Automatic annotation (TrEMBL):
Organism: Siphonobacter curvatus
UniProt keyword annotations, A-Z: Thiamine pyrophosphate
Listed CDD domains: TPP_PYR_DXS_TK_like
SUPFAM superfamilies hit by this protein: Thiamin diphosphate-binding fold (THDP-binding), TK C-terminal domain-like
TM region(s), chain numbering: none
Membership in a protein family: Belongs to the transketolase family.
UniProt-listed PANTHER family: PYRUVATE DEHYDROGENASE E1 COMPONENT, TRANSKETOLASE-LIKE PYRIMIDINE-BINDING DOMAIN-CONTAINING PROTEIN
Source species, domain of life: Bacteria
Cofactor(s) listed: thiamine diphosphate
UniProt protein name: Transketolase
Amino acid sequence: MKQYPYTDKKDTRSGFGAGMTELGRTNPDVVTLCADLVGSLKIDTFIQENPERFFQCGISEANMIGVSAGLAITGKIPFATTFANFGSSRVFDQVRQAVAYSNKNVKIAVSHAGLTLGEDGATHQVLEDLAMMKALPNMTVINPCDYNQTKAATIASAAYEGPVYLRFGRPVIPVFIPEDMPFEIGKAITLNEGTDVSIFATGHLVWEALQACQMLEEEGISAEIINIHTIKPLDTEAILASVQKTGCCVSAEEHQVNGGLGESIAHTLITNYLAPQEFVGVKDTFGESGTPDELMTKYGLKAANIVEAAKKAIARKTK
C-alpha cells in the first residue's frame, strides 16, 4: 500500500482560509461575503488585507446569495461563505433562481458540513446538501478531503467559470495530501492501486478509506482507493476504469446515502458496467449531538465500516 504519512492535523476550513488569503493577494477580482461567521470560515486574513473586498451580510443568507449574483454580473468572483446548512437548504431557492439558473460565477463556500459538526446537533448537521446541489443544472460540487486539498480546491474554484458549491468541515483531521499534488476539478485522484475492490471516498471519509486499505491489506485484500473530490462533474472515466479492473466497489461519504456520491456512482455503473456496490454513508436519518468520533462510529462511517462493506462487495462479486 502506498503510504500517506502526516505530521500535522488541521481543519479543512483553515485550508479554505489559506486559499482565500492567497487569492486575495493574487486575484483582484475575488471578493468575499459572509453571513456573520467570519471566524468560523477562517477568512480573517483576507479581510485584514482586503477590507474593501469584503461584505458582511449578517444573518441574512438569502440576501447574501442575491448580492453575490449581482457582484458576479459586474465581473467580480464572489465567495459567499457560511455554514453548510445555511448555504444549501436555507437558501436553495435563491441559489436555484439567482445563481444556477442564470449560470452566475458565484462560489458558495460552506463549512461545518456533515456529522462532524458534532455537538451542535441534528439541526446543523446537514447531510443532504450534496444531493441538493448536484441536482441543480450548471452547479459544480466539490468536497475536498484535507487542509491541502481544500486550499487547492479554493484556488481552482476561483479560476473556474460558473457556479461552485465548495464543502468543507469543522474538525481537525490529518493533513495527508501532498501540498504539491495537482488538483483538477472533475478529475479523481487514485491514492492507491488495487485489484480486489475499488473504494471511492470523498471528504473526511478519504482518510478513513486509507486506513481501511491498510486493514484490508493485512488480510490479503488489495483495495484501490480513489479520492472523488468533485461530486459533479463526476469522473466517470476513472470510476469505470477502476471497477472494470477490480469487479466491485464501495462508496464512502459523510452524507446521506440517498442522493449522495454513492448514488451517482450507482447510476454510472448501471448505465455502463454492472458490478456489485456497497454504500458507506448515513442511512436515511438525521444526526444528533456528540463528538465527531462518537458520531462517525455510531453512524457507521469509520474505517472498520469500509472494511466490512468491501468484504460484502467482494463476496457478491464471487457468487
